[in-house]
Amino acid sequence: MPHPCLTCGACCAHFRVAFHWSETDAAPGGLTPGSLTEPLDPHRVALRGTWGDTAIRCVALRGEVGVGTSCEIYAKRPSPCRDVNASWEQGKADAHCDRARAAHGLAPLQPSDWGAAIA
Ligand code: SF4
Ligand code: SF4
Which mutation among 97, 98, 110, 113 tests ligand 1's pocket best, with the greatest number of atoms within 8 A of CB? Predict the structure, then answer.
């Protein structure tokens, strides 16, 4: 069984991903490519594609939501992405995960989805 996030990607196409600019490679020790961000306010940037008037979809998301997805910058993703918990991965439901999946017509994950999941 593949890791459930690999056949989802809904949260990467639903929420604004905003974080302090110092997480970008414009700052010493920053990881997230600044070229994939745009200014949000004097202190924060947002991943391109995750806010504005058009449909939300992070510029780093590859694949088709609900079918097969991956993050182009997985090792360099910013803290909001690292903080996301998939429902039942840690033994409890997660409202953000459930909401993002619902927005894309996907049922919430269940404990049984983690039976033999492989990352
Ligand atoms: S955390 Fe939830 S919404 Fe995000 S990719 Fe994983 S299963 Fe989908
Ligand atoms: S950086 Fe990766 S994990 Fe974060 S929203 Fe974009 S595609 Fe998803």
Answer: 97
pLDDT digits (tens, 9 = 90+) for 58-96: 999 999 999 999 999 999 999 999 999 999 999 999 999
Query: Global pTM?
Result: 0.93
d(CA 99, CA 25): 31
* Residue to mutate, 31, 35, 71, 82, ligand 2, most ligand atoms under 8 Å from C-beta: 71
Residue type, 91: G
Q: Return the beta strands (E) in 1-119 as ranges.
A: 18-20, 37-39, 44-47, 61-64, 68-71
**Tokens linked to 118:** 């492989």
Q: What is the biggest distance separating any 2 CA atoms in the chain, rounded to whole angstroms?
A: 44
CA–CA distance, 61 with 54 (Å, rounded to integer): 16
